[in-house]
Amino acid sequence: MKRFVLISCLLFTTLNFFATAQTWKSYGTGLSYPVNSIVYYNNKLYAAGGSIYSWNGNTWDEHSSGMLLLMDVYTLAVYNNTLFSGGFFSVETPDHNWYNNAARYTNGSWNTCGSGMGNDG
Using CA atoms, how far apart are residues 66 and 110, in angstroms rounded to an integer? Predict the structure, then answer.
């Protein structure tokens, strides 16, 4: 009987926790696509989906400069204080070659990470 009471109490506590858990709410306006990834970088929150956006405190601002044939951004990551993205897009190199699927954010634009990731050039 004690075991039944203990299990019942645990079950009630668990169900009560999930029933009173907070709900998700919209965080501003400006996101036009489903979000695949979120990362905090350089004192801003960045979200990736059909494009890349940063939160300015009121709305989401788009940051896709340098991306060509942008279809979807699947992930964002910060490594050595640099923001990287991965997805289905291309970036153009200074010598006008195209590299696909990975880019780094520098000086307000997405740039190639180098060759070896699906060179169409």
Answer: 5
CA distance 105 to 113: 10
Closest-CA residue to 47 (of 57, 58, 34, 101): 34
Q: What is the spatial distance between Cα 6 and Cα 13, in angstroms, rounded to a whole number?
A: 11
Q: CA neighbours within 13 Å on the CB side: how many for 38? A: 8
Indicate the pTM of the whole model: 0.70
pLDDT tens-digit series, residues 38-82? 999 999 999 998 889 999 888 889 888 888 888 899 999 999 999
Nearest Cα residue to 97 out of 77, 116, 72: 116
Structure token pair of residue 91: 């970036």
**Mean pLDDT of the residues in the chain:** 76
**Residues 9, 112: Cα–Cα separation, whole Å:** 56
Site of tokens 């494009």: 51
| Burial per residue of 11-27, b for 16 or more beta-carbon CB atoms within 10 angstroms, e otherwise | eeeeeeeeeeeeeeeee
